Amino acid sequence: MSFPTHRPRRLRRTEALRGLVRETRLSAAGLINPMFVCPGTNVRKEVSSMPGVYQQSVDKIVEECREVEGLGLPGVILFGLPESKDARGSSSTSALGVVQKAIEAIRKSKLNLLVITDVCLCEYTDHGHCGVIENGDVANDATLPILAAQALSHARAGADIVAPSDMMDGRVAAIREALDEHRFQDIAILAYAAKYCSGFYGPFREAADSAPQFGDRRSYQMDPPNAREALKEVALDIEEGADLVMVKPALPYLDVIRRVREKCDVPVGAYNVSGEYAMVKAAAQKGWLDEKRVALEILTGIQRAGADFILTYHAKDAAKWLKP
Ligand code: PBG
Fold first, then answer.
1. Is the pLDDT of residue 324 over 90?
2. Quick one: fold of 26-321?
3. Among 155, 243, 287, 307, which is most buried by a count of CB atoms within 10 Å?
4. How far, in Å, CA of 302 to CA of 86, rounded?
């Protein structure tokens, strides 16, 4: 039995009907706001390729965190622009580093926010790679202790969740071990499990000043055509102790998000990355797209694909737009 008995349009007639049968309900509760911490005080410098996103000193970070909390967002993820860089990314593990100081300041302000930290070396190395260099290549095993020390310094400062994004093999286990050894057994690990080598990170590298000074990240980040391999990466990270996993970027990898969601039972996040944000902003500025409409459509699509939570530069806007 088909038309005229069945008329799917009956349930699209009014907003009340559409609301009743809506399958995906986007809410601020599942969105995380990324932020870039820089040295100094009273610094708030807009990233030119990411309008509305700023490099900010700790005092300004706390101000924005207050706004983030007020909008009903559950948390932030912090990236650091350190005072100094070297070949080993040493400044990333300092208790006096910008991220560590920002975490402490947010904790002191008693805001009801989850503090997540990106754990990686690329923002802290002078060569811009996510690990240390040996014989002209990014050395996996030699990088692990530095990542573990960085994660530990974030936990000491008061982070709730550490999120390794470097794509070294074995880093989740190394971080879990270091945290547990120092009684941070309750600090969770969000693994950037399936992180692809993507052109969509372009604007982020301006924001975080982390572009590789030679070569590219193809020898450690995933090859975009591969999806089965993402399931393997996710399985390995869960085995090593990841509490949550993430797929990144989001839009060109919706199929991967779906497959990861179906294959594993830990919470799955997606990172709606800088380039995805910049495209919408640029088109909206030209009057070619309705920013609110497309941003919410994109976030809904990422959630519909299977993401339980989304890291997005549109988090604050979305929270405002979604207010009843
Ligand atoms: C690495 C890192 C990157 C992003 C998050 N963590 C950049 C990279 O791998 O080159 C990208 C995020 C974005 O584009 O919004 N620390």
1. no
2. TIM Barrel (3.20.20)
3. 307
4. 37
